[in-house]
């Protein structure tokens, strides 16, 4: 009798776990759809911005603008995008490994490195690295990626570039291809 009750309890707990897992799956699928839509819009925006910059940089007037003038400072800026939460698999570790490799490589070539980090995990990781200057860290921006959230970072990047703190800006991120990759 006790054995049957134990077995029934286990069956109930497995069914409950299955229901919870199914609910989590539905929530995750909903979030994934929203993220995929946002990624598609961002990709289109990025392609248009790239096209505009290419058109502008080919004109005569561009040579006189500070953004297109050759700069001989020995500084590099890395803008790094990571997640705010864990359980992201290789998402963060790939970004961190690539970033650290680039920073070490820049140091060996005699360049100083500055970093702006988006995402809580990246902010915590890069606060421990002494080979670079942490210019800014921004958390919870992925939830609402709006212009006013990025404005302080954009101002800092623009000012640093024009003042000659760095002559190149590198963006390090994980590219979203599909949910299967």
Descriptors:
181 residues; Pyruvate Kinase, Chain: A, domain 1; 54% helix
Explain this structure.
It is a single chain. The N and C termini lie far apart (50 Å). The protein folds into 2 domains: 63 residues; 103 residues, Pyruvate Kinase, Chain: A, domain 1. The radius of gyration is 23 Å and the shape is elongated. The protein has 181 residues and is α/β, with parallel strands linked by helices. It contains 4 helices and 4 strands. The protein has a 4-stranded parallel sheet with strand order 3-2-1-4, sandwiched between helices. The model has no long low-confidence stretch (mean pLDDT 82).
Secondary-structure blueprint of this entry?
Layout: H1 2-57, E1 75-81, H2 90-108, E2 112-118, H3 120-126, E3 133-138, H4 147-162, E4 168-172
What is the helix/strand order? Answer: HEHEHEHE
Estimate what percentage of residues fall within beta strands.
5-15%
Number of helices: 4
The CATH architecture of the largest domain would be 3-Layer(aba) Sandwich
Shape: elongated
- Termini gap: 50 Å
Number of individual domains: 2
Supply the CATH class of the largest domain: Alpha Beta
CATH topology of the largest domain: Pyruvate Kinase, Chain: A, domain 1
Low-confidence stretches: none
**Would you tell me the overall average pLDDT?**
82
Query: How does the helix and strand content classify structurally?
Result: alpha/beta
Number of strands: 4
What's the name of the CATH homologous superfamily of the largest domain?
Answer: ATP synthase, F1 complex, gamma subunit
Q: Major beta sheet, specifics?
A: 4 strands, parallel
Helix content: 40-55%
């Amino acid at each position: 009798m006790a054995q049957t009750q134990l077995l029934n309890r286990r069956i109930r707990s497995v069914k409950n776990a299955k229901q919870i897992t199914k609910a989590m799956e539905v929530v995750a699928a909903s979030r994934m759809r929203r993220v995929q839509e946002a990624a598609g819009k961002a990709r289109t925006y990025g392609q248009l911005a790239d096209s505009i910059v290419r058109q502008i940089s080919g004109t005569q007037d561009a040579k006189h603008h500070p953004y297109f003038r050759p700069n001989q400072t020995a500084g590099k800026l890395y803008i790094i995008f990571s997640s705010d939460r864990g359980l992201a698999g290789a998402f963060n570790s790939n970004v961190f490994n690539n970033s650290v490799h680039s920073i070490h490589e820049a140091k060996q070539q005699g360049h100083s490195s500055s970093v702006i980090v988006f995402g809580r995990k990246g902010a915590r990781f890069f606060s421990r690295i002494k080979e670079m200057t942490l210019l800014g860290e921004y958390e919870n921006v992925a939830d609402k990626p709006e212009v006013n959230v990025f404005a302080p970072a954009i101002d800092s990047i623009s000012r640093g570039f024009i003042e000659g703190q760095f002559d190149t800006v590198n963006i390090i991120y994980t590219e979203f291809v599909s949910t299967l990759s």
